[in-house]
């Protein structure tokens, strides 16, 4: 797995890079600005995953995210941030981010998040944003689970959700079970209430 880590705080960047190399056997390149990250991709080809520090030079808020997504050929690009803001995370995801990672998250949670994004899923750590500190493996909803959750919020039955997304009804039932567990919901109605409170649908 080739990863490009762009962060202008050299110590932070090198620490994260060293951990990814040791724990995931990643081929990690490091850049310290959006400009240098873009040049790296142009010179060395696209990466399996790009991690962008939100506050580094050249980012211009989330405009840098969209630029990197284009340069990286649409392959996963995620935001790293020292700010655990739910609204910021939602905007990043809506603008194409593969995930939103807090720099304060536990290393094992970061590994879980990277693996999830490398499989093509979107990492949205809503529990981290709401409750400050939760394990990514337990808190992340997959893209498919979010689709099912949106269907639940719209009052659709499992059969209707299955038809909308070309799934088997039994598959939808499984997603309902797993997303309810992740949300800490007692049932689908409770899941919809939690989702609305957290602006997930």
UniProtKB/TrEMBL annotation:
The keyword DNA-binding applies. Signal peptide: none annotated. It comes from the Bacteria. Residues 134-199 form the HTH luxR-type domain. InterPro entries: CheY-like_superfamily, EvgA-like, NreC/VraR/RcsB-like_REC, Sig_transdc_resp-reg_C-effctor, Sig_transdc_resp-reg_receiver, Tscrpt_reg_LuxR_C, WH-like_DNA-bd_sf. Residues 2-118 form the Response regulatory domain. One of its GO terms (biological process) is phosphorelay signal transduction system. The modification 4-aspartylphosphate is found at residue 53. GO terms for molecular function: DNA binding. This is DNA-binding NarL/FixJ family response regulator. It comes from Donghicola tyrosinivorans.
